[in-house]
Design brief:
single chain; 278 residues; alpha/beta; Helicase, Ruva Protein, domain 3; Rossmann fold; seven-stranded mixed beta sheet; two-stranded antiparallel sheet; 10 helices; globular; Release factor glutamine methyltransferase
Length: 278
């Protein structure tokens, strides 16, 4: 298997992969059905055919974790589907920010709302750390809700969470202590310029944030006061260069900016808001 992995890594490297060795290992483990497969073992014909199919998909631009159908986030496994955004490590910044805000209340009961939940990675990660918390995930895609429910079962939080198909806060009639969202924030005109791994494989519903990328935040500024508890916290993911615009929109909606958190690249990624003091 070691030889097959080296050959695959070389093909991926020639195809332009910047992490060919890692991708080859991930694909090999998926084919072998185990982590760290025997380097001296041999792939049977069926496994060899699967590996070749995986290689062809990767060389066409499909992301490696899309190919294997799963990606780790916050140390937990999350199944992917065509209806869900692939979780990225930078989005873990939102989980960190939320847990920092919760502080010593981690073991107390509180409620979490995740808008545009996708795989459920943000909500499920917070619930995995806060064992008395309960959550609701909302997504416009019913297929995404189904994927998130599966992930809740896999990560042992299904008894404390539910997922519903819907448009943002429409039809919600309760308030939540913590609201999370990684909304679509790419300006429409920029989508065609994205890397093929994103443009052709992440769902458009999770990418297109309208003409300026700020459409969801305008909705949040207007509607979140109806679903946020009096002492509640909102944590939102943003794209590059959007920090001041989103702060301005949320401030106009009656919120106070409580700080920003930077991602692995040092860029503002998570914005924290609460109600403005009166």
């Amino acid at each position: 298997m070691a030889q097959a992995r080296r050959e695959l890594a070389e093909r991926l490297r020639e195809g332009g992969s910047e992490s060919a060795a890692l991708e080859a290992r991930v694909l090999m483990e998926a084919v072998a059905g185990e982590r760290d497969p025997d380097p001296f073992g041999r792939l049977d014909p069926d496994a060899t055919a699967r590996l070749e199919a995986f290689a062809a998909r990767r060389l066409s631009g499909e992301p490696v974790f899309r190919i294997i159908g799963e990606r780790e986030f916050w140390g937990l496994p999350f199944a992917l589907s065509k209806a869900t955004l692939e979780p990225r490590p930078d989005s873990e910044t939102l989980v960190e920010a939320a847990l920092d805000c919760i502080g010593d209340r981690r073991q107390e009961p509180f409620s979490v709302l995740d808008l545009g939940t996708g795989t459920g990675c943000l909500l499920i990660s917070v619930l995995s750390e806060c064992r008395a918390a309960t959550g609701l995930g909302v997504d416009l895609s019913p297929d995404a809700c189904e994927t998130a429910q599966h992930n809740a079962v896999v990560n042992s939080v299904s008894e404390r969470v539910s997922f519903v198909q819907g448009s943002w806060t429409t039809a919600l009639d309760r308030r939540f202590d913590l609201i999370l969202s990684n909304p679509p924030y790419i300006p429409t005109a920029e989508i065609a310029t994205l890397d093929v791994s994103v443009r052709d494989h992440d769902p458009m519903l999770a990418l297109d944030g309208g003409a300026d990328g700020l459409a969801p935040y305008r909705i949040f500024a207007r509607t979140l006061p109806d679903v946020l508890a009096p002492q509640g916290i909102v944590v939102l993911e943003i794209g590059a260069g959007q920090e001041q615009d989103v702060i301005a929109l949320m401030t106009q909606g009656g919120f106070a900016w409580r700080g920003s958190r930077r991602d692995l690249g040092g860029h503002p990624r998570a914005l924290i808001f609460g109600y403005a003091l009166k």
